[in-house]
Amino acid sequence: MLLTAQPLHPLFAVEISGLDLNRQVDDRQLAEFVALMGQHVVGVIRHARAFNDAQHVNFTRRLGPLQKMKMLTMVGNSKSRLSFPELIDVGNLDVDGKLLPDDDRRRAYGRGNLLWHTDVSFDANRATLSLLAAHRIPPEGADTEFADMRAAYDALSESMKQKVAALEVEHSIWYSRALAGMSDVSEAEKATRPASRHPLVHVHAGSGRKVLYLASHASHIVGWPIDEGRAFLAELMQHATQEQFVYRHRWQLHDLLIWDNLATMHRATPFDDTRYPRDMRRTTVLEHAEVG
């Protein structure tokens, strides 16, 4: 069955029809899906009925090596409520399916998702595709926004393109969490996720276009004074998140939302997470298989 793509934004993002994780996805469909994602970089597959965690994980495994959930010391080595280590829990529920307590550190950690970011940019082994499944959504929405970082690069002046061409940026999960208000992180906790460095500009393999690789994890520009580099990164972030570059996804139950982290940034939008449950489960494809 041929897949079709309905545009959701003038620049990027499509709704993909003809693919359902409740049915066997053949090699031809998988190749079409990969091609569509290479071009459009954000895609949503609407499902009339729920698909299960095994179907989610098995489909993603066909796209490349998967990131595994790492239980951080900062959240007390909490047990995951999900049955597959490749499922990243980005909801607000504990292992018993109840709302996390107000003082749970996982809440403080999760607030970083409200900042514009790129999954796993803080690791040397970057994320390519992320696939987020909506198992339970709050009545007031909790939309997710995306920015097309290829279009953002294209819109830079020629002098700015020359300025950013050879720059390298250090990314740290702890920098973004500090921006989100999490200040009580120990040195031992920081050692669990060391910083990494990546070029500010790279070529996106799927579309062949140049991309600004930014995020709230982007701490500073290597070789620049810290304050000067952060001011410049903030200027680029403001440019890249202008309205014309942004798609806002309004969730429906059983959506599977896919995005390319090497061509986009995204952020969650706030809702009353002390009142409404949100059950979201993500698989993440990495550039290379994890060692160990």
Overview of the molecule:
It contains 8 helices and 15 strands. The protein has helices spanning 27-40, 53-61, 105-110, 149-154, 158-164, 173-179, 187-190, 226-240; strands at residues 4-7, 14-17, 42-45, 88-89, 127-136, 144-148, 168-171, 196-199, 201-203, 210-212, 218-221, 246-249, 256-260, 264-268, 279-286. The chain is globular, with a radius of gyration of 19 Å. The chain starts with a strand and ends in a 6-residue tail after the last strand.
- Rough shape? globular
Number of helices: 8
What's the order of the H and E elements?
EEHEHEHEEHHEHHEEEEHEEEE
Unreliable residue stretches: 71-77
Average pLDDT for all residues: 93
What's the β-strand tally?
15
Structural class of the secondary elements?
alpha+beta
Largest sheet entry: 7 strands, mixed
Tell me the β content: 15-25%
| Order of strands in the sheet with most strands | 1-2-3-13-5-15-4
> Percent helix among the residues?
10-25%
CA-based gyration radius: 19 Å
Distance between the termini: 39 Å
Compact summary:
This protein has 292 residues and is of the alpha+beta class. It has helices at 27-40, 53-61, 105-110, 149-154, 158-164, 173-179, 187-190, 226-240; strands spanning 4-7, 14-17, 42-45, 88-89, 127-136, 144-148, 168-171, 196-199, 201-203, 210-212, 218-221, 246-249, 256-260, 264-268, 279-286.
Layout of helices and strands, plus pairs?
Elements: E1 4-7, E2 14-17, H1 27-40, E3 42-45, H2 53-61, E4 88-89, H3 105-110, E5 127-136, E6 144-148, H4 149-154, H5 158-164, E7 168-171, H6 173-179, H7 187-190, E8 196-199, E9 201-203, E10 210-212, E11 218-221, H8 226-240, E12 246-249, E13 256-260, E14 264-268, E15 279-286
Parallel strand pairs: 2-3
Antiparallel strand pairs: 1-2, 3-13, 4-15, 5-13, 5-15, 6-12, 6-14, 7-8, 7-11, 9-10
